[in-house]
Automatic annotation (TrEMBL), chain A:
Domain 4Fe-4S ferredoxin-type: 300-321, 347-379
Superkingdom of origin organism: Bacteria
GO biological process: lactate metabolic process
Lineage summary: Bacteria, Thermotogati, Deinococcota, Deinococci, Thermales
InterPro entries: 4Fe4S_Fe-S-bd, 4Fe4S_Fe_S_CS, FTHF_cligase-like_sf, Helical_ferredxn, LUD_dom, LutB/LldF, LutB_C, NagB/RpiA_transferase-like
Protein name per the record: Iron-sulfur cluster-binding protein
SUPFAM superfamilies associated with the record: alpha-helical ferredoxin, NagB/RpiA/CoA transferase-like
UniProt organism field: Oceanithermus desulfurans NBRC 100063
Entry keyword annotation includes Acetylation: no
Keywords, ordered alphabetically: 4Fe-4S, Electron transport, Iron, Iron-sulfur, Metal-binding, Repeat, Transport
A GO term, aspect molecular function: metal ion binding
From TrEMBL, chain B:
Annotated source species: Oceanithermus desulfurans NBRC 100063
GO MF annotation: an example: oxidoreductase activity
Entries under Pfam families matching the protein: CCG
Record's GO cellular component terms: cytosol
Protein name as it appears in the record: Iron-sulfur protein
Cysteine-rich domain residues: 3-84, 133-214
Superkingdom of the source species: Bacteria
């Protein structure tokens, strides 16, 4: 499903799936307005400053906090694993599936597992996987990747979901949203009771206490992490917070930034596997700390702040570019502004050559980021790196443009030529503008340049 | 008070009358306006495209052109942002140029911002009485310069009714190199703006580039929304009393 090449994919989305633009625009505007209202209820600017500083501090001592978390987790009986890349993480997971003889997995709340292609791995191992978040379950049925960090099925309208559920689950053609949810619940309830392993991500891991923190609205994560005998939490190494008391602000900031809620409906604080005197919970807890490119982002002077991201999706919701196409056009796990910044760093700098330009530099994302990641600045930094690899024609065009613009006489002359040529030829002086110009009525230069008006009207006046 | 007018390259060629209206207005309000002839383009297209060597050359040229001006006034929020916020970043490794960039940044104003913050104009005239106006907040002028209320205040002081517009803060989709590299998305963004424009007599903004983009798209779609730069509207406000 993931399409390589943003340009082509974005065009295709707009031409062939106009309903995506409509659904995504509606949903993101809704989220964005909720965020704005929810930020207005608190001292949001002070919270953002504090959260940004806390994250930057954590990143600057990440190794220490990771070791602290490992020590606390191990002391409570959790097994901690370290994965350098996706292959490594897959190896660990394969080993765990084998060790516990797992045939069924319930899974939820993990963009990282998308990065690691966990579902593909499990299916190859002959393990059945059930996504337990309703949105994720919908796109799993549709055979698609998530298109939004928080709302994985944000691009789908009710009609499309009705048709999908009718085909896959046999629901009536006019099923209400409640009936559709109930149909999914029936399938998933059975899965929760029979799965041998639950796989989750983590919103935060507290170093001080070794606590895996998960935030959700549906209750599925509680079941995923407690019903099966084994719980595996896949955690990006950037998810650390120093102290338990840091959660007070981060939990509120995350929910407010993501959906405008005061706090997520369910917050799970997981400190270890079930203890002998506890009635429920998994017998085994495995925490897999995953690097998968993160240390190279951390080492990047211009990009490291992107690791502060708490995956709230606010930048996607605020992004007018994202709204036109949804997330699939980016062809990557992380879409929108944060995706543009993170993806080339995590995977391959050359990905910035197209992704870096999936942005109008409107800076709306910087206005909403709860941890103040300088996204527009970073997107621009990727462009500067890409510019050296730009097509020779582009580089030559900018060179001549700069040459022209530092020689006032040539600038004046070329302006004149432009205005003389335009009425004769339509707009051939804009061939480089191609499709953009084609989407416009003729752009007519002024009959006289400002310079000429100045000379006639203002000179000496 | 020596005010140097930086017409900007787009305005020079594509909305010269609006730029002239800006000068007419500044003069009418008592500013002594000069026009340094050697000025060209601020370099933002190269800056935004990532071609910083070229952007640096152009920004250095602009620094030299506007040396010695008390104020530099531009009829463009976007180009003002280039001088105010972006240009210094280009010279972080070059102290004299960096300081010159900061110095120029401190003297540069978008037109409406200048009218309100430096000339202390609360009203330029009442000539827009009864006109219904939709105001597009250019991204740079509103977010990078923080100029949001000023244009609305002047338009309303001129008697215009600024009609609420759902998408007034959203990007028009131009973004320079973005419009060229991702034209279909850029046009879809313009459509979103145009599809939500309320019933008004005129659509205006402090950014000519956005207006050029929106007007071109409106024309292509056969929408009859008159588009005018805020400088022209304010000059009209002044002339009309």
């Amino acid at each position: 499903m993931a399409v390589k090449g943003y340009k082509a994919a974005a065009r295709r989305a707009l031409e062939q799936q106009p309903e995506v633009r409509e659904a995504v625009t509606r949903a993101t505007l809704h989220f964005d307005q909720n965020r704005e209202r929810a930020f207005g209820e608190v001292e949001a600017e002070a919270w953002r400053d504090w959260a940004a500083a806390t994250k930057r501090h954590t990143l600057s001592r990440l190794d220490g906090y990771l070791l602290e978390a490992e020590q606390r987790l191990s002391a409570r009986g959790a097994e901690v694993h370290w994965a350098e890349d996706a292959e490594d993480a897959q190896r660990i997971l394969r080993e765990l599936v084998g060790r516990y003889g797992v045939r069924r997995v319930v899974k939820g709340k993990s963009m990282l597992s998308e990065e690691l292609e966990v579902n593909g791995l499990l299916e190859r191992l002959g393990v059945e996987v059930f996504e337990t978040d309703l949105g994720e379950y919908i796109i799993q049925l549709a055979g698609e990747p998530p298109s939004h960090i928080v709302g994985p099925a944000i691009h789908k309208g009710l009609e499309e979901i009705r048709a999908l559920f009718r085909e896959k689950l046999g629901t009536p053609p006019d099923a209400s949203p409640e009936e559709l949810a109930a149909a999914a619940r029936r399938v998933l309830r059975e899965a929760f009771l029979t799965a041998g392993m639950g796989i989750s991500g983590a919103n935060f891991v507290v170093a001080e206490t070794g606590t895996v923190v998960l935030v959700e609205n549906e209750g599925n994560i509680r079941l995923t992490t407690s019903a099966p005998k084994v719980h595996v939490a896949l955690v990006g190494i950037e998810k650390l917070l120093p102290r338990a008391c840091d959660l007070e602000v981060f939990l509120q900031l995350l929910a407010r930034a993501a959906t405008g809620q005061k706090i997520g409906t369910f917050v799970s604080l997981i400190n270890g596997p079930r203890r002998p005197d506890e009635p429920d919970g998994p017998e085994h807890l495995h925490v897999v700390f995953v690097d998968n490119g993160r240390t190279s982002v951390l080492a990047d002077r211009e990009m490291h702040e992107a690791l502060s991201c708490i995956r709230c999706g606010a930048c996607l919701n605020a992004c007018p570019v994202y709204r036109q196409t949804g997330g699939h056009a980016y062809g990557q796990v992380y879409s929108g502004p944060i995706g543009i910044v993170l993806t080339p760093g995590l995977k391959d700098p050359a990905l910035a050559d197209e992704l870096g330009y999936a942005c109008s530099l409107c800076t709306a994302c910087a206005d909403v980021c709860p941890v103040r990641i300088p996204l527009p600045k970073q997107i621009l930094a990727w462009r500067v790196r890409s510019a050296g690899r730009a097509p020779a024609t582009e580089r030559a065009a900018f060179r001549s443009y700069a040459a022209l613009m530092t020689r006032p006489r040539f600038y004046k002359l070329s302006g004149k030529l432009l205005r003389l040529a335009a009425p004769l030829t339509g707009a051939p002086w804009l061939p480089v503008l191609g499709a953009w110009a084609a989407g416009h009525g003729a752009l007519e230069p002024s009959p006289k340049s400002f310079r000429e008006i100045w000379e006639e009207e203002f000179e000496g006046a | 008070m020596r005010v140097c007018f930086f017409v900007t390259c787009l305005a020079d060629q594509f909305f010269a009358e609006a730029a002239a209206d800006a000068v007419r207005l500044l003069r009418a309000l008592g500013a002594e306006v000069r026009f340094p002839r050697a000025q060209t383009c601020c370099g933002q297209p190269a800056y935004n495209a990532g071609h910083w060597d070229e952007a640096r050359k152009m920004a250095a040229h602009t620094q030299e052109v506007f040396e010695g001006c008390d104020y530099v006034v531009l009829p463009s929020g976007s180009c003002t942002t280039m001088l105010r916020a972006y240009s210094p970043r280009l010279f972080e490794g070059d102290r004299p140029r960096y300081e010159a960039a900061l110095d120029l940044a401190g003297r540069s104003y978008e037109l409406v911002e200048f009218l309100v913050k430096v000339l202390n104009a609360e009203s330029v005239g009442r000539g827009l009485a009864g006109r219904r106006v939709a105001y597009h907040h250019g991204c740079h002028v509103s977010r990078e310069l923080g100029v949001k209320e000023e244009p609305l205040r002047l338009l309303e002081a001129a008697g215009a009714e600024v009609v609420p517009w759902e998408a007034d803060q959203e990007c028009c989709g131009f973004g320079g190199v973005f419009a060229v590299k991702n034209a279909p998305v850029s046009l879809a963004m313009a459509d979103r703006k145009l599809d939500t424009v309320p019933e008004v007599d005129v659509l205006t903004s402090a950014d000519g580039a956005c207006l050029l983009h929106l007007a071109g798209r409106a024309k292509q779609r056969g929408l009859g929304v008159p588009v005018r730069h805020v400088a022209s509207l304010l000059w009209e406000a002044h002339r009309g009393g």
